[in-house]
Design goal:
17% strand; Nucleotidyltransferase, domain 5; seven-stranded mixed beta sheet; alpha/beta; 19 helices; six-stranded mixed beta sheet
């Protein structure tokens, strides 16, 4: 495939591209001018079915614990709604659009037929949970991930160190093995287990091209090979052919064109048929050129419901608990590293939804503030450590550096005088401590972080950003766009359309970043060092104790979180069983 397969029309300064960012709850489209990255129009479309994590929408049947599903058809509605709305808002002539690109939450695969039809759309299968998209935060494949990790460690598989020594229950192989073992009929019917990032591109251009980013980070493709048939067959004989029959496909380089817009997709979007459609990408990785964060040592944190940390380096190292290192995984010519936190904004949203009294909402409304703004205002001037609390940010499990979805959250130090806003601040700090753990682990492994850059919705909270700067003892730069991933996708669209020769040059022209917007307060940083030491003690005590599933780390810790999760799962599964007559 060539990144110049679609020629740039005359008058490049008057050409435009579309970037579409598919998030956890909605899709966002942005219209961007090719010459300078100016964002001229945006629109958002919420998914009708959102996240199905308690019941299956088609039937109302209860889902087991740790499930998180979506409906693929909701993604197509984004193309039909948000894209034309963004073009209308921009006021441009849609015939001057030369390319479109998309990004997606990673680890979001779905089973499809050979023509791309999702299995939940096949008559008779809409009542089968495994027929739907498994969202990134579907963690019900943990037992399969544990078996993959244990077997890989026992066999010293060469690919395991590239993922920090552990693969996640969020990734393709664990979810595919769960599908096989829990619904073998559906597994046999499935022709492809395809990442949503690639499926949506398939819908746009009519070609299934597997992007190099998700293939490497979530599909365990290293040095041109997936885990072997022998390895997969040792997990389950019927799983031996998973890589070659269910996921292997043509690999597309980031920034290349996967194909051109079909007549059907042109009708959905209102864009010209035949324009370039870029190879798919991941929301975090695609944002790097938008934030001008493509040089070695620049760590970009995309902070939203979760946080993904990506960084380029010119050296290959084994970093404990990283989500992966892939040659060219972010930009060509460099090793792309990824780490992350499973819950950040999700934790704050969970807390305000379930733990904050109604009186706080009433007070926030009276002030014309959101509940998040109000809680922040109440606690922002409290001295560091003044709440007497320490928390672990594991309400959604731990992605890095422990890679353990079975872990859970902790708030320690509550008393009868503890206020809701103080717990809210402790959760802010916990997520910052989790990020510092990642940064320090990279540095100790020979991949130092020299600049910390933030994108995503959470950068809109200045107090949270200052907490991160103080905890990390680093200045924080921010992407100068409200739609960082969508802008990053638009940059890749410009490359796919031939407007720029590569992602580096396109990012330099179209990317936007404000350097060192937040700088550490040294007194606060000193106080946070003391809290971070306590966080680390709790982190290791609860996170590095003896674990089941072959993890084998024994450090005198406490495995209570795993035991509680097992009890919960067992109790709920018993409750779901039909009562015998």
């Amino acid at each position: 495939m060539s990144s110049t397969s679609v020629p740039l029309p005359a008058g490049a300064a008057d050409a435009y591209v579309i970037g579409v960012d598919f998030g956890t709850l909605s899709g966002r489209a942005v219209v961007v001018r090719v010459s300078d990255g100016a964002e001229l129009g945006t629109a958002t479309h919420d998914y009708e079915h959102a996240v199905m994590d308690t019941v299956l929408a088609a039937t109302g049947a209860a889902l087991p614990p740790e499930w998180a599903l979506q409906v693929a058809g909701d993604y197509v509605e984004v193309l039909k709604s948000a894209v034309p709305a963004a073009v209308a808002a921009s006021g441009i002539d849609p015939m001057k659009v030369i390319g479109i690109a998309t990004d997606f939450t990673a680890s979001t695969p779905l089973p499809v037929l050979g023509d791309g039809t999702p299995l939940n759309e096949v008559p008779g299968y809409e009542n089968r949970p495994h027929a739907y998209v498994k969202l990134w935060k579907h963690h019900a494949a943990q037992s399969q991930a544990d078996r993959i990790n244990a077997l890989a460690a026992s066999r010293s598989e060469s690919w395991l160190p590239r993922y920090g020594g552990l693969i996640s229950s969020e990734w393709e192989f664990a979810k595919g093995l769960q599908l096989l073992e829990e619904d073998p009929e559906l597994y046999a019917l499935m022709d492809h287990f395809v990442e949503a990032a690639d499926w949506i591109v398939w819908q746009l251009c009519g070609r299934y091209v597997r992007n190099a980013c998700t293939a490497g980070y979530k599909g365990m493709l290293q040095d041109g090979a997936y885990p072997s048939r022998d390895f997969l067959g040792a997990l389950n004989p019927d799983f031996a052919g998973f890589a070659e029959t269910k996921i292997a496909n043509e690999i597309g380089r980031l920034g290349d064109a996967a194909g051109t817009l079909t007549a059907e997709a042109a009708g959905w979007t209102g864009l010209p048929e035949g324009i370039a459609v870029a190879v798919g990408n991941v929301d975090a990785h695609v944002t790097a050129p938008a934030a001008r964060a493509v040089e070695p040592g620049q760590m970009l944190a995309i902070m939203g419901t979760s946080t993904c940390h990506v960084m380029n380096s010119d050296v290959l190292r084994e970093v404990p608990g990283m989500c992966g290192v892939v040659d060219g995984g972010i930009v060509s010519g460099l090793y792309g590293y990824e780490a992350g936190q499973s819950g950040v904004g999700d934790i704050f949203a969970w807390y305000v939804k379930n733990q904050v009294p109604a009186s706080y909402y009433e007070a926030a409304d009276a002030r014309g503030l959101s509940i998040h703004e109000y809680l922040t205002e109440l606690v922002r001037d409290q001295p560091v450590g003044g709440h007497g609390l320490i928390a672990l940010d594991w309400q959604g499990g731990n992605r890095s550096v422990l890679v353990d979805a079975e872990l859970s959250g902790v708030v320690l130090g509550t008393t009868l005088t503890t206020r809701p806003e103080e717990i809210y601040r402790a959760l802010f700090e916990a997520t910052a401590f989790g990020t510092r753990t990642i940064v320090e682990t990279f540095a100790a492994s020979g991949v130092p972080v020299t600049e910390f850059i933030v994108a995503g919705g959470l950068l809109r909270n200045p107090f949270l950003m200052q907490v991160y700067s103080d905890v990390l003892r680093m200045p924080i730069s921010i992407v100068a766009s409200q739609q960082g991933p969508a802008l990053g996708s638009a940059i890749h669209a410009a490359v796919a359309a031939g407007a720029y020769s590569d992602v580096h040059s396109a990012g330099a022209a179209m990317g936007k970043v404000d350097r060192a917007v937040y700088t550490p307060d040294h007194d606060a940083a000193d106080a946070y060092d003391l809290l971070y030491a306590e966080y680390t003690l709790l982190h290791d005590y609860f996170g590095r104790g003896e674990k089941s599933g072959g993890r084998g780390e024994k450090s005198g810790g406490n495995d209570v979180m795993h035991r509680l999760k097992a009890m919960k799962r067992s109790a709920l599964e018993r409750a779901m069983q039909p009562v015998s007559a």
